[in-house]
Amino acid sequence: MATLGYPKQPIQKSTNMIEQRTNWAGNFTFSASQIHYPSTIKEVQELVRRAGKLKVLGAGHSFNEIADSSEEQISLANFQPVLVIDRERQTVTVNAGAKYGQICEELNRQGYALPNLASLPHISVAGACATATHGSGDHNGNLATAVAAMELVTGDGEVVVLSRDQQPEQFSGAVVGLGGVGVVTQITLDIVPTFNMRQYVYEDLPLAQFEEHFDEITSSAYSVSLFTDWHKQEFQQVWLKYQETGDTTFELKSELYGAKLATSNHTPIRGGSVEACNPQLGIVGPWYERLPHFQMAFTPSSGEELQTEYLVPRQHALAAIKVIDQLRDKIAPLLQVCEIRTIAADNLWMSPCYQQARVGVHFTWIKNWEAVRQLLPLIEAEFEALKAIPHWGKLFTMSGSKLQPLYPKLADFQNLLHSFDPHGKFRNAFLDKYIYATEIFE
Q1: Does pTM surpass 0.85?
Q2: Would you call 58 helix, strand, or coil by DSSP?
Q3: What pLDDT does 170 receive?
Q4: What topology is assigned to 196-396 in CATH?
Q5: Domain range summary for the chain, segments of one domain joined by +
Q6: How far is Cα 97 from Cα 86, in angstroms, rounded to an integer?
Q7: pLDDT of amino acid 384
């Protein structure tokens, strides 16, 4: 077992809110009157025991009120950086507040990799897992599926460790915990031997070809993303991320169902910074510099955007694309880019992919919430019959009463929250609206 560190962030001090604090995108202003920066688990316990209402704030990359509190917030930015590799169990344990981009380089140096990453390495491990944030790949689950164990402080200030092996039922409910189970302080992740990747971009895939060859396209690489601004019936870019296997029979095609192989580096949003993106053109690099679209050293955008994502059952993916195509005239004027990705099924209660492989239809909007707010109900009305589920950390207008039936383990999750937080310290407006719209726990 090896214990290693990663670079620590500047020390922050607990503070009353003198200036308004917002999330990364600046579209949401937190209402918590105070934010604390404990540096030990004992300090977390003390904060939890005396708090009335408390939520953990990660990297601030959620676009809604999921991490907000009416009273106080906690950030784990001051925790001593820890990266503990258990070579026998093939796991790594890190501070829950660590960002993926902070841990990947050291993990790779030790000969290991994470199975998948999201498009941004700037997000926190705990926040990504708590909201079922994901990368892409027909055989890749969301980031929470890599969690093997988690240490957390419950509503009464006690430290609890849950693992996939020792408490499988509670564990399955707590991993995608939406910040309601407790303050997660450490997370143990499954790791695999390190690997290299290369990625290529194809341009201008006709929509008709995508519909006819959907399965072939999404299964053609380890991770696949398709981008369009919906001004035309095409995907302007198809990003294919290949795992290096040493197979000498690999042949790169100059054309992918009518799409042409790009001869220069691209960014998902046309006109954006190519420099901020990870290398393409088949240049071989480590997994953590290819799986994300963007580099950790760069801010991927100015934050002048809003994001929405709906996850539809894989069998309804083409129907969902047709819905979006029919709404192109309304969607395109407000859209920066739309990304399509596939995610494998899992057994985590509050994951949108619970026992169901899904396809993510992701929208990056211009920063005009009033216009987007009026558009989303039109999309959601069409997606309702397709059993689409919104991403927990992004913007949507679906009511709690419509969202709840889409989660078959909701009653069990309510019971779990009550057992770990009987006084509702970690409840907030978001959980009240979407998890407790109807209280059905026993």
Answers
A1: yes
A2: coil
A3: 97
A4: Alpha-Beta Plaits (3.30.70)
A5: 196-396
A6: 20
A7: 97
